Amino acid sequence: MMAHIYAFGSVCRGEVTPESDIDLLAVTQGSDLRFNPDLYSVYSYARLAEIWREGSPFAWHLSLESRLLYSPNHSDYLLELGTPSTYTSANRDCQKFFELFRCSANALRAMTNSPVFELSTVFLAVRNFATCNLLLARDRDA
Hints:
- With 142 residues, the chain is α+β, with helices and mostly antiparallel strands.
- The chain is built from six helices and four strands.
- Helix 5 packs antiparallel against helix 6.
- The longest helix is centred in the C-terminal third of the chain and has 27 residues.
- The protein is globular.
- The model has no long low-confidence stretch (mean pLDDT 90).
């Protein structure tokens, strides 16, 4: 069964620390039991092509910093996809991330859930909000 394997994230940006994990992407034809979803982000070829067409922040993230680790036929699938489309969902996505931030902040104040979980959600919401705005600024300046 065909699969491409990529690394992405801090290890590819050269920002790895002893606390860093290594983000791995497995691109497969469909369900592939060789790749544990606890260890890999597993996407089908069709789904990655779709997020490239959507201009998703994850597509931009992968296109800018992923590194091919394995290819069954010496091809680079992500490189073949080309540049992701323009990101057009920023307003909707920023509203979604703001709502996540707000809910987690309220849960932290009320102490209704795990503080570690809520703080992690706050961090992810802020990081994703910043990513959306960075992509908007890049498109505006292009």
